[in-house]
Amino acid sequence: MKKRVDEFLSASRQTKRLASLSLGRGRQLAVWHNSHDEIQYNATSGHVFSLYLNGGAGTRRVDGSVKSGEPGTLCVLPEGHSSEWQITETFQFVHLYVANDALRAAYAKTHDQDARRLNIAEQTFAAPGVLERPMLKMAQAALDGDVLAADASFSDMVAGLEDRPVRLVGGLSSRVVRDVNDWIEAHIDGEIRLYDLAKLAGISEYHFHRMFSLTCGMTPHNWVTRIRVELAKKLLKQEPMAGVAVACGFSSQSHFIRRFKEQMGVTPGQYVRMIMP
């Protein structure tokens, strides 16, 4: 079973996790301190965006770049990444861990593009460009335990991600995806069946499930859950929790709480306390 980068770091006696924050949807933040260490990553699970906060001159990649790090440099470790690192000085850095489907779905939604166009290229000690500001904000949010600020900064980061030229085979057209999204939003308070969505695309349920997952980065079921939770976030500002669960199509209060926490990293009650003045 593949391990995440944070699992490799946690196994070292030299590393110290200064802060950790779950954002839900397969997203996790961590701020680390490390010194005089050797780290090896092997076929990692999920993608990692890393920004050096303090120090880094004593950090170099043994298996690749001859450069060393410095504050403000960015490393991107795509899923399946392997590398070896040597650390001879103290430094601090922030890591964003994000599952492949979560990142691609966020990209598809934000850019209104096919999820397969997202470019997740390996980078070592690169200039962060437009990603620096949201990464710094996520680091501070992790230290503050501020899920809302971290979630907003994640959205800003995704908006800055680039696409790549790719010849797409299969998948759904942008028109079909828009029709499906419109139908979901119009029926969000009730049961949404795969049959109904496949009918909009004019293909079988099997092929719709497969083509939708390719295009949008996650399964139709998870996509619908995400839309339900996004609506719930808006309604919680003005309506009681029980009414929100019904309006968003959750089968029960417990189902609503469970799915909301999976998506947001906090319960609906915790979320309400965060947004209330």
What does this structure look like?
There is one protein chain. The chain has 277 residues and is α+β, with helices and mostly antiparallel strands. It folds into two domains: 5-159, Jelly Rolls, CATH 2.60.120; 174-275, Arc Repressor Mutant, subunit A (Orthogonal Bundle). The protein is built from eleven helices and nine strands. It has helices spanning 5-10, 100-111, 132-144, 147-159, 174-186, 194-201, 205-216, 220-235, 241-247, 253-264, 268-275, and strands at residues 16-24, 27-34, 37-41, 47-54, 59-61, 74-77, 83-87, 91-98, 123-126. The strands form two sheets. Strands 1-2-8-4-6-9 form a six-stranded antiparallel β-sheet. It has a three-stranded antiparallel β-sheet with strand order 3-7-5. A hairpin with a 2-residue loop joins strand 1 and strand 2 (27-34). The longest helix has 16 residues, at 220-235. The N and C termini lie far apart (44 Å). The model has no long low-confidence stretch (mean pLDDT 95). Keywords: DNA-binding, Transcription, Transcription regulation. Residues 178-274 form the HTH araC/xylS-type domain. InterPro entries: AraC_XylS_family_regulators, Homeodomain-like_sf, HTH_AraC, HTH_AraC-typ_CS, RmlC-like_jellyroll, Tscrpt_reg_AraC-type_HTH. One of its GO terms (molecular function) is DNA-binding transcription factor activity. It holds the Pfam family HTH_18.
